[in-house]
Amino acid sequence: MLLRSWIEAAGLAEGVGWVSVERGERDAQRFWLSVIDALAGAVGVVQRVAPAPTFNGRAVVEQVLADLELLEEPGVLVIDDLQELDSADALEWLEVFLGGLGWGLRVVLATREDPRLGLHRLRLSGQLTELRAAELRFSMEDTLELLRAEGIALSDAAAARLYERTEGWAAGLRLAVISLAHHPDPERFVTEFSGSERNVAGYLLAEVLERQTPEVRELLLRTSVLERVCGPLADFLTGGSGAERMLQELEDANAFVTALDARRFWFRYHQLFAELLQLELRRAEPAVIGSLHRAAAKWHEQQGLILESIGHAQAAGDWRLASRLLADHHIDLTFDGRTGSIVQLLNVFPDDIVAADAELSLVFATARLLRGALEKSAAYVDLASQTADALSQERRPGFDVLLCELRLVLARWRGDLETALQTRPLLAAALAAQPPGVRALSDETRSVALQSLGVAELWSSRLDDARRELEQALALARRAGRPWLEIPCLAHLGIAGPLTGLSLSAGLELSEEAVSIADARGWGEDPVIVTALGTGAMALLWLGRLEESERWLDRAQRTLQPEGEPGTELIVHQARGLLRLSQGRLEEALAAFGAAKRMQSLLAGEHAFSAAVQARLVQTQVYMGRMAAARAALSEISAEARDTGDMRLARAVIRLAEDAADQAIDVLAPVIGGSAQTIHRPSGITEAHVLDALAHEQLGDRRAAETSLERALDAAEPEGIVLPFVLVPARELLESIPRHRTAHPTLRQTILDVLDGSTPRTAKAPAAPVDELSTAELRVVRYLPSNLRTPEIAAELYVSTNTVRTHLRHIYAKLGAHGRAEAVDRAREFGLLAPSHRRR
User: Fold this and answer.
1) Are the C-beta atoms of residues 577 and 616 closer than 8 Å to each other?
2) How many Å apart are CA 408 and CA 452, to the nearest integer?
3) Residue 266: phi, psi to the nearest 5?
4) How far is CA 377 from the centre of its chain?
5) Whether residue 485 has pLDDT greater than 80
6) What pLDDT does residue 810 have?
7) What is the DSSP letter of 25?
8) All residues at 6 or more sequence positions from 643 whose CB lies less than 8 Å from its CB, including other chains
9) pLDDT at 840
10) pLDDT over 80 at 434, yes or no
């Protein structure tokens, strides 16, 4: 009340964000998303973050702080009931947030206890103002003013006694005023209560309840088991009617009932008032408490409020109902960003219930997997398998799907690709066993399963199968409306596509789309985008865009998680090694390829890029003059592996370093002829021709060298491939060929520019827009390349459809575009979106 009065008196209503912490809040993501939503609504410059199964809180907080640096007008953030925040992570990030604030935002923390925050630095620097009990306590003058305002006449002695007994406690005085307003003998009333704050409150509560009608008393007592109450829910619990009107009248009377929304539909009782009501309920009607919670669980389930329903089922001790609800809904809750709430609910279940409940064990396994605790997740999967026979026939098919999916994901994350692939027929059988008309655990579950299969097939070099599974997973993710699932599908297709016939440019577009989806939803530092950043960086490398590739790799490095998926981390290290090799930073290249090789050692099967990594490691050793080490590394490889296209390229580099050009030509012949495949055929053939040109040059056959180099340019031209000419020392040979003697003068010059440190141009450099786009317009621009319609973009941005349409008109005018597609192209030209490369 004090804070709201201050806000109103100061005329701050337009620039204030208000967060009321939920009781017993342990979900760090839910708390922080509420803070971000409040800030976004209050000050505008903060980008909203969509809920997701994982949450990188520190990175999100750092981004919010960066956004707040753009504040032009001061704002206020109020966090009320901070004592309810019971998440160590959320409190740690709050401390980071408070310590990093600039001038523009004032934060008010309202709490009944000293917060578990290191505020001493702010206190010492004079940046902290503290209003404690002494400042908040009513004075004698305040007490008299309150009594006069309510028309209550007390003698000076009685008023002084009231003040003394309540010690100026505002809530106690308010309770006293409510009782005094209807008491026949106010003077006697004041003399009859004394003691501690809670005793005073209990006495006063009894007085307040006695003044209510029987219907209101029943409503207050029976709904005290609720965190929040509305009219229909109260009627359901009491069996009566008219509860909504009663709640509104209680709020109007300032009887410790507060509306939570503008419609005055949901209400909450003052915390102390609720606790005292619960005490009275336990004294008067202890037998009804369980039935009240069961009724509340039923009502909330009917309304689709699953978390609240589970909580009430647990409070009633109805573990079977709580387990069923959590098993049926935990996938949707996970993708809605409620992982923390799921963990909070799981921690309430008794150990013996968990040990005997197969479905509950799988919920535990999913939660542990998302926290990166693979061994604990696997243990719960094993427990679920052991207790599965107790499941009913009706629930067994859905259980089997989730069991297979978790085994598949665990095998993939452990690098056990063989086990992951062996799970495929089991998963197919489980899906086929679903009863007609039942979509087992939703499109989300099917998408995750197909995505995991696709990734396992991709890393196992089953490329066509991988692409098919990933495309199906992407379609399911889009049908389910789960952008968080779209991102890894697009990212892995960014690899699988170019390895199965798509151009590098098309693969880069897929990676860029994945990153754009993440950026538009505030997931720019979430580990979910690591693969997209790694695959995009790889494509940029082959296209000669080294500076952009380095930026993508730096971002990928920031989002890598300890104990993450080794197959993905291998790609990032390999791309880093290629970048350093192209820059001539050989020690760093060797270290990166070594790190990629260590990731291979964590995999139970051979990664699709394993041979390419080993080949680049050998190539780097040769360029460093470590011939003995290069030969030793080559000798460790099987004869079959040495005959792969990538290893033949490395063997040719060794032969050239040994002045054995004729042997290099022989080694390269199967690659050029197509019988020895490289991981990416167009790039491999291009590099083979470049090495073949160097071999002929070493033999003194300039004409043959020029012919091979022209063939390399022929192979590179359709996709604009540049990297092979940078990795191999072919500059002198390129420069020696006059422009008029090549059919590819532009590509030749582009390669020479890259060797000189320039970045290839992707389009003609445009002039800047006539009018700069606003922050709000830029946010809309980020969604234009997506498949979202205007109402869907509005929903993502929490604005009206008309607002988005207005922004679109301004965007089209400022970019000189006549439609969405043209606006996307223009935005890319101006650098407002990541560049797009269409297949030639």
Assistant:
1) yes
2) 7
3) -100, 140
4) 20
5) yes
6) 85
7) B
8) 670, 676
9) 30
10) no
Distant-in-sequence, close-in-space partners of 337: CB < 8 Å, separation ≥ 6: 29, 30, 33, 50, 51, 52, 53, 55
Residue 265: pLDDT band with limits 50, 70, 90: very high
Reply yes or no on whether the pLDDT at 204 is more than 70.
Answer: no
Neighbouring-strand partners of residue 75: 105
pLDDT in tens, 638-663: 888 889 999 999 999 999 999 999 99
For residues 488 and 454, the answer to whether their CB atoms sit within 8 Å is no
Rounded Cα distance, 54 and 767, in Å: 40
Which three-class secondary structure state does DSSP give residue 85? strand
421 to 325, 416, 418, 497: CA distances (angstroms): 31, 9, 5, 20
CA–CA dist 76, 412 (Å, integer): 46
Give the DSSP letter of residue 764: P
At 131, the amino acid letter reads L
Q: Are 492 and 513 in contact (CB under 8 A)?
A: no
Q: State how far Cα 333 lies from the chain centre.
A: 14
Angstrom CA distances, 266 to 140, 227, 236, 301, 534, stand at 35, 10, 15, 17, 47
The per-residue pLDDT for range 790-808, each reduced to its tens digit, is 888 887 776 777 788 888 8
Give the Cα separation of 429 and 376 in Å (integer): 26
Q: In whole angstroms, what separates CA 373 from the centre of its chain?
A: 18
Average pLDDT over residues 810-832: 79
Query: What band does 761 get if pLDDT is binned at 50, 70 and 90?
Result: low
- Cα gap 201→166, rounded to integer Å: 9
* Beta carbons of 117 and 94 less than 8 angstroms apart: yes
The pLDDT confidence band at residue 744, using thresholds 50, 70 and 90, is confident
Give Cα 654 to chain centroid, integer Å: 46
Contact 232, 225 (CB under 8 A): no
69: left (phi over 0), alpha (psi -120 to 50) or beta: alpha
What six digits make up the tokens of 762?
């992707």
Please give the single-letter amino acid code of residue 163.
Y
- The count of other CB atoms within 10 Å of the CB of residue 287 is 6
Whole-prediction pTM value?
A: 0.77
Tell me how far apart the alpha carbons of residues 360 and 277 are, in angstroms, rounded to a whole number: 34
**pLDDT reported for residue 181:** 78
DSSP E strand boundaries for 64-133: 75-80, 105-109
- The pLDDT tens digits for 119-133 are 888 888 888 898 988
- Output the CA angle 821-824-825, nearest 5 degrees: 90
Q: For residue 123, what is the enclosing H or E element?
A: helix 120-124
Rounded mean pLDDT of 548-574?
87
**Which pLDDT score is estimated for 764?**
43
- Edge-first strand listing for the sheet containing 16-20: 16-20, 75-80, 105-109
- Specify whether the backbone of 800 is left (phi greater than 0), alpha (psi in -120 to 50) or beta: beta
HSE-CB at 669 with a 13 A cutoff on CA atoms is 6
Q: Are 750 and 719 in contact (CB under 8 A)?
A: no
Gap between the Cα atoms of 70 and 103, Å rounded:
11
Q: What does the alpha-carbon distance between residue 217 and residue 428 come to, in Å, rounded to a whole number?
A: 57
Task: For residues 224 and 221, give the distance between their C-alpha atoms in angstroms, rounded to a whole number.
Answer: 5
